[in-house]
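Need residues for this backbone.
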């Protein structure tokens, strides 16, 4: 159901022309790692314009993406337009107008389907309507797993090119963090972040507490953001906060409440876990999962979406309609006794080179 990378050609970095690509947004770590690690790239991915002043490039803030405005696409000096993230700010009519502008100008449209279900939306209809515009209109569709490609083929009759998610953590950083001496209790982590609509930590916390308590020299570490767990937080979840505070007082878990972590602090935190549990009731793919793989941290993920297609993870049964606590306990026991092997960092580097070469050849093929 998918186009193979071999079909794109082996000499993908041949040729001297440098292609100008509007990859929306270019500041996202996934997009940054579509370029070869050595920095030698025949693709120039334009920097994100500042939403407040599109004449300037944004250093950090790319939201909402200026490149998705039809008036920007109407005059931009680009060879290829590649939509990755951020189109949830657009109406279907706005996306149709964007597609029309690109067609008038003869600029190929590439769409990478990261999410078949938007993890921030409790209702799927808006995201479905946006994909119903973008996927059929695209000159090429990419996705990250074969399972997602099969669903794309069923829903739209479109054959997607499957290219795996490149590493998230800088590989030298990942190697350094992996080489730290091990010590302390076996640690299971649950990160409640800012509670996307896809997350249901309260559903799985009782089983996590029970299973970790039953294991020798083990602890459960829950990290959460102040906006969710502090009094007066803008997105406070009182029920979750009360459960976590009570469990902390009983000694069932360690609770760390903090502001958003920097990348360095986040990698340090993830590398200190033995297991990271994903509390998702729906979703498609996960960059968090990829970062854990880079750092050698075992991932326990639900069987919704296509997380298990991304790499070796342990799964438990959970989606919007069912949850099996026994399968979660079994996954934790396996994580303790027989965890999947960590990602090979040299293989991750080669994978990035292959993914970069495949993108370049796809762009060249569309322009030919």
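Answer:
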């Amino acid at each position: 159901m998918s186009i193979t990378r071999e079909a794109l050609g082996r000499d993908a970095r041949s040729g001297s022309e440098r292609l100008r690509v509007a990859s929306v947004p270019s500041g996202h770590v996934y997009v940054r790692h579509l370029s070869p690690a050595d920095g030698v790239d025949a693709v120039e991915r334009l920097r994100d314009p500042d939403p407040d002043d599109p004449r300037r490039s944004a250093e950090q803030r790319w939201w909402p993406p200026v490149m998705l405005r039809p008036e920007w696409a109407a005059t931009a000096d680009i060879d290829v337009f590649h939509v990755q993230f951020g189109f949830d700010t657009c109406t279907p009519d706005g996306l149709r107008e964007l597609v029309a502008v690109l067609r008038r100008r003869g600029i190929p449209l590439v769409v990478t389907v990261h999410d078949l279900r938007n993890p921030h939306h409790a209702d799927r209809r808006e995201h479905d309507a946006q994909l119903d515009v973008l996927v059929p209109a695209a000159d090429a569709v990419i996705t990250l797993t074969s399972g997602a490609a099969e669903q794309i083929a069923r829903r739209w009759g479109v054959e997607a090119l499957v290219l795996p998610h490149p590493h998230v953590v800088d590989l030298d950083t990942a190697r350094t963090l992996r080489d730290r001496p091990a010590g302390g209790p076996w640690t299971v982590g649950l990160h409640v972040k800012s509670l996307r609509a896809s997350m249901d930590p309260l559903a799985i916390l009782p089983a996590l507490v029970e299973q970790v308590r039953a294991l020798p020299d083990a602890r459960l570490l829950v990290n959460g953001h102040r906006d969710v767990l502090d009094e007066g937080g803008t997105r406070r979840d009182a029920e979750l906060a009360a459960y976590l505070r009570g469990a902390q007082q009983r000694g069932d878990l360690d609770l760390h409440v903090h502001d958003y972590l920097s990348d360095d602090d986040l990698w340090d935190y993830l590398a200190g876990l033995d297991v990271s549990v994903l509390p998702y009731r729906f979703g498609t793919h996960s960059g968090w999962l990829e970062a854990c793989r880079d750092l050698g941290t075992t991932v326990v993920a639900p069987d919704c979406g296509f997380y298990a297609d991304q790499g070796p993870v342990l799964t438990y049964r959970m989606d919007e309609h069912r949850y099996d606590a026994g399968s979660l306990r079994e996954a934790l026991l396996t994580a303790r006794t027989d965890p999947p092997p960590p990602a090979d960092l040299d293989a991750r580097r080669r994978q990035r080179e292959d993914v970069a070469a495949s993108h370049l050849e796809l762009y060249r093929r569309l322009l030919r």
